[in-house]
Structure formats: C-alpha cells, structure tokens
Amino acid sequence: MISYDADAIVVGGGLAGVAAAIAVAKAGLKTIHLAPAGPPDRRTSALMMPSVDYLSGAGLIDDPAEIGHALTQIRIIDATNRLIRAPETLFDSKEVGLAAFGWNFANTKLLERFHTVAAELPNLETRNLGVTALNAEHTVTLTDGTTLRAPLIVGADGKKSLIRGAAGIHARETAFSQAALVCDLDLGRPIGGASIEFHYPQGPFTLVPAGGNRANLVWIDDRAVLTAAQAGGPDALLKIFAEKSQRLFGNIALATPAHVFPLSTLSVDRAGVDGVVLVGEAAHAFPPIGAQGLNLGLRDVADLAAALAVADRRADDWAVKVSQDYSARRAADLVRTGGVVDTLFRSLLAEMIPTQALRASGLWALKLAPALRRRAFAVGMGER
Q1: Is residue 45 part of a domain?
Q2: How far apart are CA 191 and CA 321, in angstroms?
Q3: Residue 164 lies in a domain
Q4: 88 pLDDT band (50/70/90 cuts)?
Q5: Distance between CA atoms of 246 and 215, rounded to whole angstroms?
Q6: How far is it, in rounded angstroms, from Cα 233 to Cα 271?
Q7: Residue 238 falls within a domain, yes or no?
C-alpha cells in the first residue's frame, strides 16, 4: 500500500495557488502548499462581481471596500488615426442593475488577506520551498532535496509550469511583440469609478481607478517602445502619459516605478489528468485585456472545489476521478474565454480595413443596442 504525506500537494505561491490551497483544505483534505517566496507583485487585479462573490462566499475577503476600489464604468476611446474609427463608448454598471461591475484590488493586499485565511486552517501546511521534479506515483522532489507524495497534485506554478510538463499536459503558447508597462499614477483630476481605455494601434492605454486621485496604468505597446520609454526616465515618461491620456486628467505624477512585462497567450489541451490538475497561469495566460486573468483562475479554483465536493474519497482512484471531473468542468470556459480574449486583442491590433470596420460597427452596436450591451456585460464578467 502506498504511503502518502498528504491528501493533496499544491505547488505555486501566487494568488491562484494560495486560493487553491485554501479551497482544497476547506474541502477537508490534508494539504501541503509548496509556496517559495518571491518578489512582491506590484500589479493589480480587476475582479468582476462573480469573482468577488466567490471570494466573499469562500471566506477569502470580507468587505471588498476594505482592500479594493469599485469599478462602476468602462469608458472606451478610439485614439487611433485609422480610416474607420470606433465611437467613444461608455458602459455603466447601473444598466444591469449592479452597484459595480467589479472591484480593483492590489495583488499585494489580496495575497496578504489570503495568507491570513490560510494560516487559520489546521489541515493546511505551507512550506517556503519549490519543486524540482514530479516523479512516478506523485512524488515531488523539493528544492531542499526532500520528497513528498500525495494522490492529488495541484499545479499553480505559472506559465512555465513544471507540474504541467511532468504530467504530460500539452501547452500551446504564442508570444507577442507587444508588452505591458504597469505603474501607479497620481492624477490631477480623479476618474471616480471609471476604467478608461484609450485604444491605440499597438494596444490600449488603460487607467483603472485605485481610490482618490490614484489610478493603475496598464499600457500595451511594442516592447521596444515601452522599454525605450521606461529608459527615458520619469520626466519623459510622464510627458508620454499626458499625451496618451489626451491631457484629460491634469498634472500626472508617478506613484510607483514602471515595470514592463512581456505578453503571450497560453492554453492547454486539458486542465487535469491522472490525479494532476492545473489552475491559474499553469493552465491559461492572456494579455491583460478584458480583465480575465485572475478571474479565470478563480473560476478554476471554484470548479476544483466543486469537483472535490462530490468526490468519493473512499475509492482508491478518487484523485484520478477528481482530475477528470475538473478537466470536464473547465473545458468549455477555457475555450470560450481564450477565444474571446485572443480575438479582442488581435482586433485591437488589426490594420486591415474590414477588421477595423467590423470592430467599429461592433462598438456602435454595443453603444446603441441595450440588449446586446447587457449580453456583452455578462460575457465580460465571466457569467456561466
């Protein structure tokens, strides 16, 4: 009979990994979470209301207003010089009877809150160690040379997932020439609860509300353009920001240093197999378009919790069945969301006249047709 150290081992210390470890432990499994400490994640996550509702229901947050900022409007401005331009479009959460589309959270604050919850679970042990190998019979080798074994392995170890590769799950990754520059800005005039997207030929320049006069910037452009802008120093960078934001917000000041991240998409042929499941960027990754990254990761965690809730753990192959159930639950959502985000991102970069016309006409339709706009809201918020 195989001897196990735990019922489940969760690998990966990011937000999706900690949320998964908590969900698995709350399902009643003895859980070991392997979460090597990394540098602080200075980015933010715009979580739509279904994700916020999940966090609240799972006890991961209390009042979202304590650590986040409400997103009540989305304003899209076509800032290109293309022959066919889209209309300026404003989406308001009141149209669908919601106080907000979602909430914008600093990743550091979310992670701090998740760690507080994890520390209160007696059947969840967290170790500041990584994994160097996943071997036969679900034995993982840790960075200190020791080994652990569990019937269920949860890979939340990012785009370059070791767990994914060792489990033989095929991944398709496409790298883009574009990258994302992120930082926090203090604006001369506040943007309230509105996320404002200026669409340029190489990607959007987006300001997300972060409370008061603070905004989180996500600027997508060719990587060479962004690294050159970053290298030019704060004064040159602020001049670019003023031009990109069409000088609508008064004086702009840097509140945090700017960082540049490469962009790519990643998808898998299945999210679970043979007692191994993948969550977060181990299973999917997208450019920061449509606020889907962590939202999709939390839907992974919710479906993993659902699969565990109906599992018969008296059966010898319970972990294999959980991985099969989880993979089936995630399949349609991963395909649908991946397709939507990829199509949207590529449409923003398209120079072909027919594509420009389709995108512009689509925004006109969303602007003028309330029923279509409400359906777009539902898709964008990840409702299933």
Answers
A1: yes
A2: 48
A3: yes
A4: confident
A5: 15
A6: 43
A7: no
Strands (E) located in 188-340: 194-200, 203-209, 214-222, 252-254, 259-268, 272-273, 276-278, 284-285
Q: Which pLDDT value is given to residue 378?
A: 56
So what's the pLDDT on residue 360? 43
Task: Tell me how many degrees the CA angle 97-63-188 measures, rounded to the nearest 5.
Answer: 75
Q: Which token pair is 241? A: 């920001």
**Which of the four pLDDT bands, split at 50, 70 and 90, describes residue 383?**
low
CA terminus-to-terminus distance, the chain = 41
The pair of three-digit structure tokens given for residue 250, joined into one six-digit string:
């008064």
Q: At 369, list the tokens.
A: 């047709």
The yes-or-no verdict on residue 354 having pLDDT over 50 is no
**pLDDT tens, residue by residue, 180-199:** 999 999 999 999 999 999 98
- Which structure tokens are listed for 223? 């990587």
Minimal CA–CA distance to 41: which of 256, 304, 312, 191? 256
Q: Is 353 exposed, middle or buried (0-12, 13-18, 19+ CB in 10 A)?
A: exposed
The pTM of this model reads 0.87
Residue 82 is predicted with a pLDDT of 54
pLDDT in tens, 261-301: 998 889 999 999 999 999 999 999 887 665 567 999 999 99
Nearest alpha-carbon partner for 322 in 336, 308, 309: 308
Q: How far apart are CA 217 and CA 285, in angstroms?
A: 20
> How many independent structural domains does the chain possess?
1
- Domain interval for residue 354: 8-173+263-380
| C-beta of residue 140 within 8 angstroms of C-beta of residue 5 | no
Q: CATH no. for residue 342?
A: 3.50.50.60
Spatial distance between the Cα atoms of 101 and 174, rounded to a whole number of angstroms: 30
